[in-house]
Request: fold
Amino acid sequence: MSQPMTSMAAMRSFRRDPSVVGRKLPPGTVRRIIEIARPYRRDLSFFLALVVGSSLIGVITPLLAGNIVNRIAGLEGTTGDIVRIALFIAGLAVVDAAISLATRWYSARIGEGVIYDLRSRVFAHVQQMPVAFFTRTQTGALVSRLNNDVVGAQQAFTSTLSGVVSNVIGLVLTGAVMLTLSWQITLLSLVLVPLFVLPARRIGSRLQEITRESYELNASMNATMTERFNVAGALLVKLFGRPGVEADAFSGRAARVRDIGVLSAMYGRFFFTALTLVAALATALVYGLGGWLAFTGSLSPGDVVALALLLSRLYGPLTALANVRVDVMSAMVSFDRVFEVLDLPPMIRQADDAVAVPADDRSVEFENVSFSYPSAEDVSLPSLEEVSLPEHGGPIDVLHDVSFRIEPGQLVALVGHSGAGKSTIANLVPRLYDVTGGAVRVGGIDVRSATLDSLRDAIGVVSQDAHLFHDSIRANLLYARPEADEEQLWSALEGARIAALVRSLPQGLDTVVGDRGYRMSGGEKQRLAIARVLLKAPGIVILDEATAHLDSESEAAVQEALDTALDGRTALVIAHRLSTVRSADRILVVDGGRIVESGTHAELLALGGRYADLHRTQFADGERRPADAAGALPSLL
Ligand SMILES: Nc1ncnc2c1ncn2[C@@H]1O[C@H](COP(=O)(O)OP(=O)(O)O)[C@@H](O)[C@H]1O
Ligand SMILES: [Mg+2]
Reply:
């Protein structure tokens, strides 16, 4: 390895946060890292062999140079010998170049391979996490873990491992050869090392503070820019007319970033200069002391030259190894942080003896179901949450003793105040969460013993705000059913009453929708989501306030699409509109996580209880709205 590279690596490790060394690693981390390396053991052994080869060449070349000098000084041997040795040195240089390429090839293969393995494992694992995990986790923290720590872990195999191996071997070989040439000079050169390493440590810790501060300043500068440059922020600045103050505050931070940039450049240069200076001083020492020894005859001129050349290979490894503990620990901590994510148990997993939900039974049944949302420790990592709130006295029961049955083809409506537990009930059917007591059965099978695939195929869900991926309409639809043909796609779009719109788009089915694509209105999005469910053709449909966020015009269109979606299917509908509720086969009134009333619209009105209240308050608006009647044109009443 060449000199600038080793000193760069040395500088990086002086800059590293020494606090990682204090971190406790769980037992078995090393074993697991070895486990990760196992597929690469062939590549790794080639890699290490090459590193050793390169170190050997690094020691042999100065010795050969010394040999030439001795021949010149003593005028011994023939000119042919000298040319032969010089050619051999040249040959070694070519071999070393080839080794350097091959080393990079192996280290890149191993490093990228490890990144690939860890990334795909973490991604696959995170996808298995329950919804509860995502409700608690900061996406940014998770993404950064996927990126930064995985890359940090990769460095363990490439730069850290190869650095340690090549430095140790280089140091041992160089030191041994130098000692045999002249122990006095070697010891004296070593005395100079603390002269460099001790100040370097101080510079390193200062550099690390500076780097951290500049990261923070940059982040806050970016945050200011994103906030002020979006429409809402820009509007606020304009309306309150304080652009001057904003600009000053921004310049203040930018100025600090500038100053830190200068400081950091100087510290960095100081590091290199000090290293170069110590090496130069030592070289002077070798020539001075060595020359003197050569005069007295205890050293040959060639040895002096060889010693001077070897010296340059002594300091790089020494400084790098001075901080090896920090390097190794940093790599291990990265691994540990990746393992932490991989070790999160997926709470919802398929039973080993799971059976498919029968295709011919579309009933849904809740039997004495009680449920509480899992607590943070169960589903997430504190380090991935922005603030880990202390749980107040453990999980709170959200559902109590909920029992009902929906016969195949029936429509059951859930009504109740916000926070009553309606969405929670709906979420238990596709097993987004597991019940804490009782059982949920789909097609007569407890969802915990059904295969996840068959359960997913049996149930279609439309919620308040359907999500579309930033992708073409076609891709969004095919997500529900990858093998669907063109005809099926269009018939789903027809059923969802959105075919005309899609046809009118210049790119039709290939129009890209989502954040950065064609902006669909809320109603159009919902209808596309319904088309997705129609394409999937599940036996059971769950609607969770699917029209709640829409204006009455879109609502009428979506309602029409929903009627198609519900036709002939078992349906669990959380409704905020009276017309849907009224046509339900049965209405369940949810309050405080319990089903407090159950019956048809007429029965419940006659009962004069909770439903009658709700009917008066919550649905009073809907009653008067003409758009309520499915398909009716909104009038201007
Ligand atoms: N992911 C969650 N984690 C913890 N508690 C939740 C979560 N979602 C809902 N809750 C709580 O469960 C209760 C029922 O909520 P929900 O089923 O969404 O009510 P509804 O749909 O009837 O408005 C509420 O008290 C709510 O705070
Ligand atoms: Mg809800």
User: Anything to note?
Assistant: Residues 422-423 surround magnesium ion (ligand 2) (CB under 6 Å).
